[in-house]
Design brief:
The protein is mostly helical and 113 residues long. The protein has a single domain, classed as Orthogonal Bundle (Arc Repressor Mutant, subunit A). The chain has five helices and two strands; from the N terminus they run H-E-H-H-E-H-H. It has a two-stranded parallel sheet with strand order 1-2. Helix 2 crosses helix 3. The longest helix is centred in the middle third of the chain and has 15 residues.
Length: 113
């Protein structure tokens, strides 16, 4: 695992911009955001950025989920809050707790948000 990006790092700033651009009722994966921000292998850095900067930059952190369509947070560590926030935005979960990425994934394209 690489060193987490500092708040002023261009990748970090790009990650924040892409996360802020995810529309209500849509989700993106950690890997998708990393790819859009220019580091396809940077999914763990995206996770760190969300963890450390969501409050400061008022990021819609709840809209970023795992590539398998599941919430990555554990119960007691934000899982239930993330699920509640997504449901309030109209995102649904199947019986196994997965989001249908074909229906709810944000189809952003490269460039800038």
């Amino acid at each position: 695992m690489g060193i987490p990006a500092a708040a002023g790092d261009p990748f970090c700033a790009s990650v924040r911009e892409w996360i802020a651009a995810i529309p209500i009722g849509k989700v993106a994966t950690y890997g998708q955001i990393a790819h859009l921000a220019g580091k396809p292998w940077g999914a763990r850095q995206v996770s760190w950025i969300l963890h450390s900067q969501s409050d400061k930059y008022k990021l819609p952190w709840q809209r970023v989920i795992g590539a398998n369509g599941r919430i990555s947070l554990r119960p007691g560590k934000g899982f239930f809050e993330q699920r509640r926030l997504l449901r309030e935005e109209g995102v649904t979960f199947d019986r196994s707790g997965r989001v249908d990425l074909k229906k709810f994934r944000w189809l952003a394209t490269g460039g800038t948000p």
